[in-house]
Design a protein that fits this description.
mainly alpha; about 250 residues
């Protein structure tokens, strides 16, 4: 049965997502400041370029985290617990490129944590039956788009000695990423089945999946502008998925 979303709750999620995404970027820039100055795409970032100091960045981070906490504590207890459980991932993600070729996987685990919190904030209880397939689908999606995005930095990454799935998959990532996209599709289909969504949801999911495949197979790994456009086009993938979820309630 369709119902009108809680506008206040949606607004809090939007604000909280913006704040915590910003906090994650600040943490990333603090950890990577010495690497960033040697990468063409990131050398102009405030810390890498010397415009800001680390103490200034930490002060700004404290403001961001305080604002995020102010939003989080307005949710129910289980949501607050889940929110705090995400912090280790937020902190350690930037370090992963030093140790593993799969930092994008850790990024996916971090970025998509909201899928677990959202259901809990609405229903008051944690249900992995309803949330885990969506979370897993989000992890696969992030792994795909951030791998393609990372091809911009391959030469610099090799020079400074950091790792990524872009380096791991080499010059022919289309096959592996297409296989990973099946995990994305499977997670979204399971989400619809477990949540009892209707046919329009599956039509939208199919369109979203095809758009992701388009990104994979049309990406020019040596053209930074092409890679950026593919990365930026995920706003359309996300829009398709949001519309699919909404339509699936009718």
């Amino acid at each position: 049965m369709a119902s009108i979303p809680d506008v206040v709750l949606l607004s809090k999620f939007a604000v909280g997502a913006i704040i915590m995404r910003g906090a994650g970027c600040t943490i990333n820039d603090i950890w990577d400041r010495d690497f960033d100055k040697h990468v063409a795409r990131t050398k102009c970032r405030p810390l890498a370029s010397g415009v800001l100091t680390v103490p200034q960045a930490l002060a700004f981070l404290s403001v961001q985290l305080s604002a995020g906490l102010a939003v989080l504590v307005t949710f129910n207890t289980n949501s607050i617990i889940l929110g705090f459980m995400s912090m280790p991932l937020v902190v350690v993600y930037p370090l992963m490129k030093r140790f593993t070729y799969w930092p994008q996987l850790v990024l996916g685990l971090t970025f998509n944590w909201g899928a677990l919190i959202g259901y809990t904030a609405v229903m008051g209880e944690i249900s992995l039956f309803h949330t885990l397939p969506l979370y897993v689908a989000g992890v696969y999606w992030t792994l795909i788009y951030d791998t393609l995005y990372g091809y911009q930095d391959r030469k610099d990454d090799v020079a400074i000695g950091v790792k990524s799935t872009s380096l791991f998959f080499g010059d022919n990532p289309q096959g592996p990423l297409s296989i990973i996209s099946l995990g994305l599709l499977g997670g979204l289909l399971a989400t619809g089945i477990n949540s009892g969504l209707t046919a329009p949801y599956y039509v939208g999911v199919g369109g979203m999946w095809l758009h992701v495949l388009w990104q994979i197979w049309t990406a020019d790994l040596d053209d930074k502008e092409n890679l950026w456009r593919r990365f930026n086009s995920n706003k359309y993938s996300g829009g398709l998925l949001a519309l699919a979820i909404a339509a699936g309630h009718f």
